[in-house]
Amino acid sequence: MSGGPPSFGVLLTNLGSPTAPTARAVRAYLREFLADRRVVDLPRLRWWLIRNLVVLPLRPRRSARLYRAIWTSEGSPLTVTTARIGAALGPTLAGAGIEAPVRVAMRYGSPSIAVELRRLVAAGCHRVLVLPLYPQYSTTTTASTVDAVDAASGRLGRAVETRTVESYHDHPAYIGALAASVAERWDEGVPAGRLVASFHGLPQRIADAGDPYPDQCAATTRALVRSLGLAPGRWHMAYQSRFGREPWLRPALADRLSSWGRRGVHGVDVVCPGFAADCLETLEEVAIGGRRLFESAGGSGFRYIAALNDRPDHVAALAAVISDHTRDWRSPPAGAAE
């Protein structure tokens, strides 16, 4: 190493989480989350009334109970696991010959994007690669992160070049890690009759407006299926986490599980390729709620396959994504002596 400042830094981001499984903490988190126009694009006055008179007074207490079901002694699974990924990413990059400081930030809550971007710049990084842990691009997630990064960089008072990884939904290393996680689970016992790839849902009108998210979810699923060598009929794709009453992407995971349960289906594995780290939507909604829904309807043999979390092959995949997106930053200037 030259001993000079790093050529670039990495800002690893995720959605965020309440600081505690309490109604007060959930309310504070939802207040910030639901104020984002990328998340809810209803007319502002109408949404202000719904948010402040209906959602924030009622939803936090229920959500806090759900968070308590998955909370750990270390804190929120999403924030704890994201921090672990970030801690492992630096040494993994160094092992590949890439020296770059890595900071972890959350789009909503703490640690904030503004604070962690400032720390990278203070460390001498004039270029920052932003890697949102959203494999599939959506205006509601990745674009919102870009908004926050742009706003934070504009307040720094010094020049910093930022670049965002918009998606890595079909990156070979990411697909390889996904396939390995499924295969390892199957090695523990007989593979289930059906594999379901479940992704976070999205209002249908956002997809109709051109958001590439559903196409990228389908591409991820096809790549995973090819890697596993699954025959037609062995795999399915669905969406979860619907919020509100308007139409969302279909088919809904809950509808499929209910239908299969009523038909007495045995053997369903659910994997959630859109979630880099386990969180409320995977651990409570799918692993607990999905199982309950399926079995209460009459099904049996339900298994949830954990998110990639801080698996070494996942961290290596993220390092490969970073390498691909910073190749020009790491190349010597044209005409420089070799």
Question: How would you spell out the order of helices and strands?
Answer: EHHHEHEHEHEHHEHEHEHH
Q: Helical amount among residues, as a percent range?
A: 40-55%
Tell me what the CATH architecture of the largest domain is.
3-Layer(aba) Sandwich
Number of strands: 8
What name does CATH use for the topology of the largest domain? Rossmann fold
Note the beta-strand portion. Answer: 5-15%
- Radius of gyration, CA atoms, in whole angstroms: 21 Å
Count of all domains: 2
Report on this model:
- This protein is α/β, with parallel strands linked by helices and 338 residues long.
- The chain folds into two domains: 9-168 and 312-330, Rossmann fold; 172-305, Rossmann fold (3-Layer(aba) Sandwich).
- It is 48% helix and 14% strand.
- It is built from twelve helices and eight strands.
- α3 packs across α11 (312-325), α6 (172-187) packs antiparallel against α11 and α9 (253-262) runs parallel beside α10.
- The two termini are 15 Å apart.
Search tags:
Rossmann fold, 338 residues, alpha/beta, four-stranded parallel beta sheet, 2 domains
Topology summary:
Layout: E1 9-14, H1 23-33, H2 44-70, H3 77-95, E2 102-106, H4 113-122, E3 127-132, H5 142-154, E4 161-164, H6 172-187, E5 194-200, H7 204-208, H8 213-228, E6 235-240, H9 253-262, E7 266-271, H10 280-296, E8 300-305, H11 312-325, H12 327-330
Parallel strand pairs: 1-2, 1-3, 3-4, 5-6, 5-7, 7-8
Short synopsis of the structure:
The protein has 338 residues and is α/β, with parallel strands linked by helices. The chain has helices spanning 23-33, 44-70, 77-95, 113-122, 142-154, 172-187, 204-208, 213-228, 253-262, 280-296, 312-325, 327-330, and strands at residues 9-14, 102-106, 127-132, 161-164, 194-200, 235-240, 266-271, 300-305. Strand 3, helix 5 (142-154) and strand 4 (161-164) form a beta-alpha-beta unit.
